[in-house]
Design goal:
alpha/beta, 5 strands
């Protein structure tokens, strides 16, 4: 499995990578612009990401905009819906409107509020069929 971790906070990126490294090859991006470029490159190399963990509030391009771009890239390349990357929003936001926009307008798969708990992330990944139940 391949995962793209997108967060401008070093600690958050490192912690997610620590949780996910037993399950996946992890790449990191510090903002939405880097995420879009990494996502396009992965598709070009026929090594698409299975999961994107995306913070919403970041410099350059924010997470919601990056998500929409990623979904547009998948659409433009003809990636079938069932093969599209799962996108989990990882954010401290408690704003209902921002969360709603990310989930529905940005086409996110799930939302986890920071600070991320390892058990919650792994449970969400199991629910999404990314890792097997033990």
């Amino acid at each position: 499995m391949r995962v793209l971790i997108v967060d401008d906070d070093f600690y958050s990126r490192s912690f997610l990578e620590y949780i996910l490294h037993p399950y996946a090859l992890c790449d990191v991006a510090e903002n939405g612009e880097e995420a879009i470029m990494a996502f396009q490159q992965a598709l070009k190399q026929a090594k698409p990401y299975d999961l994107v963990c995306m913070d919403l509030r970041m410099p350059e391009i924010d997470g919601a905009t990056a998500m929409r771009e990623i979904r547009d890239v998948e659409k433009d390349r003809g990636v079938p819906r069932e093969q599209q990357a799962k996108i989990i929003i990882t954010s401290v936001l408690e704003d209902a409107e921002d969360t709603h926009n990310a989930m529905f307008l940005g086409d996110a798969t799930a939302f986890l509020q920071k600070p991320i708990e390892e058990k919650a992330l792994l449970a969400e990944m199991k629910r999404l069929g990314l890792i097997a139940e033990h």
